[in-house]
Amino acid sequence: MTDTATLLDWLAAFLLVSGAFFSLVAGVGLFVLPDLLARMHAAAKPQVLGLLLMLAGLGIVWRSWVWLPVLFLAWITQMVTAPVASHLVGRTGYRTKHARRELLHRDE
Known about the structure:
By secondary structure, the protein is mostly helical. It has one domain (3-103). The chain has helices spanning 3-32, 36-62, 68-95.
């Protein structure tokens, strides 16, 4: 292998492990965090970043432009759906009085 291929393999491994770590943190956060609004945050933000890192790692591992539109479509789909779903869960929890209001700094 060339030096460039080795460097790309290490970069891909770093991105895949980092993405898996962020996804694991998101999953653990769903069980550990105390209330609905904190879980909503854990479900959306680190999961999307973890997926982005993993998709970037896959793009480097495959080393083909053919897969780029598929990876980009998967990333865009997650970027659109995860925050919307998280917002709807938070809104529904707030309206049905499942959010702990004593933890809110400002109730708008």
